Amino acid sequence: MAARYPQIQFDTANVDAMCMWLLKNPFHYDVIVTTNLFGDILSDLCSQLVGGLGFGYSGNIGQKYAVFEPTHGSAPKYAGQKKVNPLAAILAAKMMVEWLGEAEIARHIENAVAAVVAEGAVRTYDLGGTASTTDVARSVAESLRFAHAMR
After folding, report:
1. Which of 53, 94, 60, 91 is nearest to 74 (CA)?
2. Is 127 helix (H, G, I), strand (E, B) or coil?
3. 86 with 46: CB under 8 angstroms?
4. Model confidence pLDDT, tens digit, residues 85-138
5. Is the pTM of this model over 0.90?
6. pLDDT tens-digit profile of 36-78?
7. Is residue 131 a contact partner of residue 122, using CB atoms and an 8 Å limit?
8. Which residues pair with 58 in a beta bridge?
């Protein structure tokens, strides 16, 4: 495939070496194409670089359809406890909205998440807080509502 696109820089690496290079210089990479297993390993590593699995989201994009999801999985051991960080799910929805062509709405969602994280008042356990999943989701929704009202 790389031969068909000579203008795009292409390289190959083993997953363990890729982990090292991502830690050393994460800004060197724009896109990484990999198998599901290695993608899972690399996405967990990269999520930790930005704050933890609660921030990791992904898109599986095809010719006509796409699926967007948090990269951390379903976390069944936390089922019903309302303690899991919802930001990855919200950011996956942002990515979906962006893919659907609604760049402005996507930008508002991203800005709302960034505002809640920067404020730091509402945090789930993985970020050192005690807020519930619902508390964080409500804070993001309130940030969106506030930003909309300011326009």
Report:
1. 53
2. helix
3. no
4. 999 999 999 999 999 999 999 999 999 999 999 999 999 999 999 999 999 999
5. no
6. 899 889 988 998 888 888 999 988 898 999 999 998 777 789 8
7. yes
8. 69
Tokens at residue 57, please? 């989201």
Tokens of 49: 């670089």
According to the 3-state scheme, what is the secondary structure of the chain? CHHHCCCCCCCCCCHHHHHHHHHHCHHHCCCCCCCHHHHHHHHHHHHHHCCCHHHCEEEEECCCCEEEEECCCCCHHHCCCCCCCCHHHHHHHHHHHHHCCCHHHHHHHHHHHHHHHHHCCCCCHHHCCCCCHHHHHHHHHHHHHHHHHHC
CB 116 within 8 A of CB 145: no
Residues 41 and 19: beta-carbon distance below 8 Å: yes
Distance separating alpha carbons of residues 72 and 57, to the nearest angstrom: 8
